[in-house]
Description:
mainly beta
Amino acid sequence: MNSTLYRDEMKGNFRFWSVHSNSAKENLSFYMYVKNASKTAVKLYMKGAGYGASLTSKPEPGAAAATNQYLKSQDSKGRYLATIPSGGGYAYRYASGVKDGYSMNYIADFRAVDASTGSDAAVTVSDIVTDSEAANVAAYASSAQIAPTNYLYKGSADDYRGVLRHSGRTAKVNVNLTVAEPRKFINIADAEPAAYPEEQEPLISSWDEHGTKYNKPTEVVFKGKKRGAFWVTDYTIQFLITKPASHPSVLTAYGARYGTSNSGYIHYKISPDAPLTQYAYDAGKVRLIDTSGSFTIKTMVQPFLSVPLAFYFAAEQ
């Protein structure tokens, strides 16, 4: 049980995201271990984090809690965590006491900088699981091979391990509503056919289910999802909606995708200074988010969940 689940090199600003469903019949703890292989000391900062846990049979509340905490904790400068000497390491415990039958969800942004110059520094980051509170985390982080996954466990492909080039996307979306077509919508989802083709971003490094790193990124499609690719987690979208003069108002709603039976959560801010809004929706339910027709929204999709979402636009008479 004491092993490294994933390991890769990061530099400067990086996002660490980990999800694990515990079926080990015992409580588990999780660590992020940061190894400094450079010749100079490295300072590590945390720029925001979120954590949640809930029953594996109902993972939505845990994923929603992690997302909500993360979006509320953004700090561009970052909170100082540690100075890691050359050749040294730093263990950060981000989850403990995760019970059997529970899933945990953790997402956080960090920055590693050269302690002397303040420039971006390279570090090796390991994700470690242990059933002992007195674990020798450094020893697990130096193991030659990472742990195998439960690939195809109970018919589910879960070995999404690797590095994405981007942690989020910024987009401009122009919506033209007409008399002939006064209503439109767009989808957000982490699997086709609900998602648009190629909406998942390929991993720039990837590992197989046995814990061996591929020589080059490899893509395998399983039940509409791509191993070797993953969902980019957050979006900042600028919407500009035009409408016919005969329709005095335009409404924008956000929530469940039409035609699905899923329930879930949306998290969003309409402006940088606005409070974060979280909305728990049932199947077919949406929330009115704007009536101006021109706005910018920051939102986040929990990649642990295959929950299709949608924005709806309507010109009203």
